[in-house]
C-alpha cells in the first residue's frame, strides 16, 4: 500500500534547500581542492623519486665500471631510504636490495620500456600502499636499474586531506542548515505575525492590527491586511447597527399591536371564529416579540456592548441564579469544590447565556436533568445536560448558527437565536461553548470559561 507523501512545510523546505546548497558547494570545493592537491603531491613525489633514482643509478654505474665489484655488493653499499627497493638486472639475472617480492612484482609493467632504452616513471599497485617505480637503463654496464619507492607518506597525507575536507564539507552543510533556519525565521516572521493577527480577528478581536513596518517590501502587505481588517470591522459594525436599528424601530409597532390584541382578547363580544383568529395572532405576535428581543440582545453582543462591568464571582452563584430565573430548583446544580471556582465575567451576560441553555434543554431536550461544574486546570466547565434525543454529530456546530434548528426542534418552537446568543455571549467573556453527548442519551452543552487571573497566579 502506497502512503500519500506528507506535505513539507515552507520553513523545512528553506532549511533543506540551504543545507543541500551548502553540501553541493562544499563537496564541489572539497573535490576540487583534493584533486588539485593530489595532482601536485603526486607530481612532486615523482620528481623526487626520479632525482633519487638518477643519483643512485649513477652510483651503481660508476661502481660497476671502476671497481668491478659484484652487483649485490654495489647495492649493499647504497644507503637506501626506508620503504625503497633497489633492483638491478644484468646478464639475465636480477639483483634486489630487499627480500620482499612485491618490489620485483612492481617493475613488471615497466620492464619492456626500460629494456628498450627509455627512462620510465610510473605507479604500481603491487605494493600497499601504492609505489612509484623509476626505471633507468645503464647501457655502459649492460644493465638496467629500478627503484621502487612505497609512497607511504603521500598516502597518509592524502588520507588526512580526505578526512579534513570531509569534515569541512559536513560542517559547511550544518552551517548551511543553520543559516537556512535563521533565514526562514527572518523570511517567515511577517507570515507568523499575519497568522497571529488573523487568529485574533477570527476570534472576534477586530482591533487587532499588524504593526507598521519600515520594510518597503512588506509595507504594501501590512497596509492591505490592515485595510482589509478595518473594512471587515466596519462591515460587521454596520450590519450590527442595522439589525439593532431595525429591531429598535419595530419595538413601537409591536408594542402597539400587543396592546391592541390584549384589548381584543379581553373583549367579551367577539364571535368564536374571530376570537380564534385573535388568539392565533397573539401567539404569533408573542413569538415575534421574543425573536425581536433576541435580535436586540444579539445586536448588542455583536457590537460588544456589555450589560455591565466585569466582576469576579463564583461560577456556582451564576449557575444558581440562572436556575432560579428559569424556575428550577438550585439542587439541580451538583455541589462540589469546582462550584466555588472564581471567574471574571459580566454577570448579566453569563447568567443570560446559562438561562438560554436551561430553556433550550426544557424546550428541545426533553427537560433539564442537571448542571455540573468541573475544574480543568486554568479553565472551568459548566455542563448543562438534558434527557432528550441528543444532537447529531453533524449538527453540533450548526446549532450555534443563527436561526438554525436541529434534532427535536420544531419550526414554531422558538426564534432559533438562543444558542447563537449563548455562543456570542460566552465568547465575549473569553470563553467557548460546544455540544457533546451526555452521560445518558441526551445532549450536553459545555460552557468553558477561564479561571480568574489572580487565582491562576
Automatic annotation (TrEMBL):
EC main group: transferase
Catalytic activity: ATP + protein L-histidine = ADP + protein N-phospho-L-histidine
Molecular-function GO terms, alphabetical: phosphorelay sensor kinase activity
Any one cellular-component term (Gene Ontology): plasma membrane
UniProt keyword list: Kinase, Membrane, Phosphoprotein, Transferase, Transmembrane, Transmembrane helix, Two-component regulatory system
Annotated ranges, domain HAMP: 185-237
Principal localisation: membrane
Organism superkingdom: Bacteria
Protein name: histidine kinase
Amino acid at each position: 500500500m502506497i502512503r500519500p507523501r506528507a506535505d513539507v512545510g515552507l520553513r523545512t523546505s528553506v532549511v533543506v534547500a540551504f543545507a543541500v546548497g551548502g553540501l553541493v558547494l562544499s563537496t564541489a570545493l572539497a573535490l576540487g581542492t583534493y584533486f588539485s592537491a593530489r595532482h601536485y603531491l603526486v607530481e612532486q613525489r615523482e620528481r623526487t623519486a626520479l632525482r633519487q633514482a638518477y643519483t643512485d643509478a649513477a652510483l651503481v654505474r660508476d661502481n660497476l665500471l671502476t671497481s668491478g665489484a659484484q652487483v649485490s655488493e654495489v647495492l649493499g653499499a647504497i644507503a637506501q631510504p626506508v620503504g625503497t627497493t633497489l633492483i638491478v638486472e644484468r646478464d639475465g639475472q636480477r639483483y634486489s636490495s630487499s627480500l620482499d617480492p612485491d618490489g620485483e612484482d612492481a617493475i613488471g609493467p615497466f620492464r619492456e620500456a626500460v629494456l628498450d632504452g627509455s627512462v620510465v616513471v610510473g605507479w604500481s599497485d603491487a605494493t600497499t600502499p601504492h609505489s612509484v617505480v623509476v626505471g633507468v637503463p645503464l647501457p655502459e654496464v649492460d644493465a638496467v636499474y629500478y627503484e621502487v619507492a612505497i609512497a607511504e607518506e603521500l598516502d597518509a597525507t592524502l588520507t588526512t586531506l580526505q578526512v579534513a575536507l570531509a569534515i569541512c564539507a559536513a560542517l559547511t552543510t550544518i552551517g548551511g542548515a543553520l543559516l537556512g533556519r535563521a533565514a526562514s525565521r527572518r523570511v517567515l516572521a511577517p507570515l507568523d505575525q499575519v497568522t497571529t493577527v488573523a487568529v485574533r480577528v477570527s476570534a472576534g478581536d477586530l482591533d487587532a492590527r499588524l504593526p507598521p513596518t519600515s520594510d518597503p517590501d512588506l509595507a504594501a502587505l501590512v497596509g492591505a491586511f490592515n485595510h482589509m481588517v478595518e473594512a471587515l470591522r466596519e462591515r460587521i459594525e454596520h450590519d450590527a447597527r442595522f439589525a439593532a436599528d431595525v429591531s429598535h424601530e419595530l419595538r413601537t409597532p409591536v408594542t402597539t399591536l400587543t396592546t391592541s390584541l390584549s384589548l381584543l382578547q379581553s373583549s367579551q363580544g367577539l364571535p368564536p371564529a374571530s376570537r380564534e383568529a385573535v388568539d392565533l395572532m397573539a401567539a404569533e405576535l408573542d413569538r415575534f416579540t421574543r425573536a425581536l428581543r433576541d435580535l436586540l440582545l444579539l445586536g448588542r453582543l455583536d457590537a460588544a456592548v456589555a450589560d455591565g462591568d466585569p466582576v469576579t464571582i463564583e461560577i456556582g452563584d451564576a449557575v444558581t441564579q440562572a436556575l432560579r430565573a428559569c424556575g428550577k430548583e438550585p439542587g439541580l446544580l451538583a455541589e462540589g469544590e469546582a462550584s466555588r471556582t472564581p471567574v471574571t465575567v459580566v454577570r448579566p451576560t453569563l447568567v443570560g447565556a446559562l438561562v438560554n441553555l436551561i430553556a433550550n434543554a426544557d424546550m428541545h431536550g426533553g427537560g433539564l436533568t442537571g448542571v455540573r461544574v468541573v475544574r480543568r486546570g486554568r479553565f472551568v466547565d459548566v455542563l448543562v445536560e438534558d434527557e432528550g434525543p441528543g444532537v447529531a454529530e453533524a449538527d453540533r456546530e450548526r446549532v450555534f448558527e443563527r436561526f438554525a434548528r436541529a434534532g427535536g426542534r420544531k419550526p414554531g418552537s422558538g426564534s432559533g437565536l438562543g444558542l447563537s446568543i449563548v455562543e456570542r455571549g460566552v465568547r465575549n467573556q473569553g470563553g467557548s461553548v460546544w455540544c457533546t453527548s451526555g452521560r445518558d442519551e441526551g445532549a450536553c452543552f459545555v460552557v468553558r470559561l477561564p479561571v480568574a487571573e489572580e487565582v491562576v497566579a
